[in-house]
Amino acid sequence: MLGLAAASPHALILGAPLYDATVPRVRLIGRYLTHGMVALNTLSLAIRDSMCGYRVYPLTELVELADGATLGARMEFDIEVTVRLSWGGTEIVICRRQ
């Protein structure tokens, strides 16, 4: 992830978890409902997993966003920042497991 961030310093680098058959079904359904709402709000499928905690924020863009908006302080922070950065045109890069 850090290599991707170094190569694209103004991009939001997002992780994307891989699930196997042991993931609780209710968790998976909840995540996909959230992903659907994010896709609807951004009109894009670029954000594969808005809830994955593995991410690298572009510092300049994040500071500009925080200066101009009141952001959530809890679990909504990651989703809100991801959506707002997407609205602002920040490039989204998905880090895929190798």
The helix-strand sequence is: HEHEHHE
Helices, by number, come to: 4
Radius of gyration: 14 Å
Strand adjacency order, main sheet: 2-1-3
* Overall mean pLDDT: 92
Report the strand count: 3
Q: What is the 3D shape?
A: globular
Query: Biggest β-sheet: count, sense, barrel?
Result: 3 strands, mixed
Helix content range of the residues, please? 40-55%
Structural class: mainly alpha
Query: Could you list the spans in which at least 5 consecutive residues all have pLDDT below 50?
Result: none
Distance between the termini: 11 Å
Task: Quote the beta fraction.
Answer: 5-15%
Keywords:
47% helix
Tell me what the structure shows.
The chain has 98 residues and is mainly alpha-helical. Helix content is 47%, strand content 10%. The protein contains four helices and three strands; from the N terminus they run αβαβααβ. Strands 2-1-3 form a three-stranded mixed β-sheet. The longest helix has 18 residues. The radius of gyration is 14 Å and the shape is globular. The N and C termini lie close together (11 Å). The model has no long low-confidence stretch (mean pLDDT 92).
List the helices and strands and how they pair.
Elements lengths: L1 H6 L4 E4 L9 H18 L12 E2 L2 H10 L7 H12 L4 E4 L3
Parallel strand pairs: 1-3
Antiparallel strand pairs: 1-2
